[in-house]
Amino acid sequence: MAPHPTSPTALLKNDLRNAALARRDGLDASVRAAGASAIAEAVMAIPALAEAVIVGGFWPIRSEVDPRPLLDRLFARGQRVALPKVTPEGLVFREWKAGEALVPGRFGLSEPRDDLPPLDPTALIVPLAAYDRRGHRIGYGRGYYDQAIARLSRNGPVLTVGIAFSVQAVEQVPAEMHDQPLDHLITEAGAVPLNRT
What we know:
- With 197 residues, this protein is an alpha/beta fold.
- Helices cover 27% and strands 21% of the residues.
- It has one domain: 3-Layer(aba) Sandwich (Rossmann fold), CATH 3.40.50.
- The protein has a 7-stranded mixed sheet with strand order 3-2-1-6-9-10-11. Strands 4-5 form a two-stranded antiparallel sheet.
């Protein structure tokens, strides 16, 4: 459950989110493109990811890391990809194949068609606005991924891989009880060493 929008924690998260997104927006398009390729290579090197039959990805919006180079590599390795759709009940993942048309969704998202079968990924590539070195993330404030990770985890372990640019780092995310740290964090500089203590 997300904090009340006017709680001190929510206000701090909002400030950290806005500052990190401003830094991300300030990156040159060529830097973002090169970073997306470097991130894709680093994510593909995660051994546990290779074991996931279905990987939940996402389609990029605004200046976030473009995961499409990563999705191409997953397809080339023979893995299936599911993309999220925002519904009143939360995120529903539907299988997506390279080249399939997406449809406009809420919040400017591009989403898979409703007639595609829902799937439960065992690994998720997670977008984020800001992160810290403990593996905690700040999303876009609606809690969709926290809820999806909690739901999918009821089926068994879910590997979570956050991808971001290094300018999105913050000193400390004000984590709450429902927040689950990511298993891996990857930036254009490679894997972020996570301090779990």
